[in-house]
Amino acid sequence: MRLVARVPATTANLGVGFDTLGLALKLYNTFEVSDSEPDFLEINGEGMECLYNRENNIFLKALDFFYKLYNLTPPSLSIKISINIPISKGLGSSASAIVAGLMIANSLLDKGLSKEELLKYAVKLEGHPDNVSPAFFGGCTISLVSDGKVMVKKVPLPDDLSIIVAVPYFDVPTEPSRKILPDYVPLDVTVKGLARIGMFLVSLITDNLKDLPVILEDELHEPYRARFIPNYNGIKKELLSMGALGVMISGSGPSMVILTERERVEELVESVGFVLTKNNIIAKILNLDIDYEGAVLEVN
Ligand code: HSE
Q: Which one of 43, 168, 190, 285 is least enclosed by Cβ atoms within 10 Å?
């Protein structure tokens, strides 16, 4: 028996879609489970030693969680994890582990739950749906959690849209980055937020990107989280003036996502490097394609 789950990186919020919008990117973690050697754990990926500690290993927690649903404990397995999605950078590394853990446990126990059925458990483990939804289904997703039910819809994207991700060297853990947010927001801020997400979706669906720089202003989370990224507002302003369609904090940060028309990617990758260097931020700059497939489980 050998199972391999491959799960994409995800960027959550897309600026104006706090806790609702997410997008899957072609950068993958893989999780392999077999019965070849009991109690074997191997983790590949730079600086990932912390995952050998079972308490920190979200994949193992997700496996345990699913088995516990049936009052069972996972068998002793050989596990190989290969990490390409950087941890604590706002690119859905924990979502990838949760999705993989649930899909593998579902298959090991032969429960036959669909991705839609597994999604509600993933949301329970992650606390919000906007990374786990695109991690399961690929593409751009909008999710609704209401009365304990999770609903997800795919948002069609224009072919012309390209994504640049800047991954700073410093970390911002999700928890403090959520704690900093207000419990309540004024009605006028809520109304602007509703209009912005609606206009963003219409722009994507009708392939009309020209107003994105105006639409993609967020007041629900970015103003609070900007303080974790030196001169974030200045960086955003400068990149928009250089032709970016949108600049946003990826999930809870510190990675930044820059939206651009495909034909301008190369020029804009250079601009992002220039602007970040000017602000003394060492970052990896990636032009990542959108993943439309979502998590894949191979069973041998
Ligand atoms: N929507 C979540 C947040 C994503 O912004 O806190 C965390 O990756």
A: 190
pTM for this prediction? 0.96
Is pLDDT of 51 > 80? no
φ/ψ (deg, to 5) at 262: -55, -40
Residues 135 and 178 in one domain: no
Number of domains in the chain: 2
What's the CA-to-centroid distance between 22 and ligand 1, angstroms? Answer: 10
Q: What is the domain range of residue 8?
A: 2-155+290-299
Print burial letters for 89-126: b (CB count within 10 Å at least 16), e (below 16).
Answer: bbbbbbbbbbbbbbbbbbbbeeeebebeebbebbbebb
> CB under 6 Å to ligand 1: residues?
12-13, 18-19, 90, 128, 130-131, 174, 178, 221, 251-252
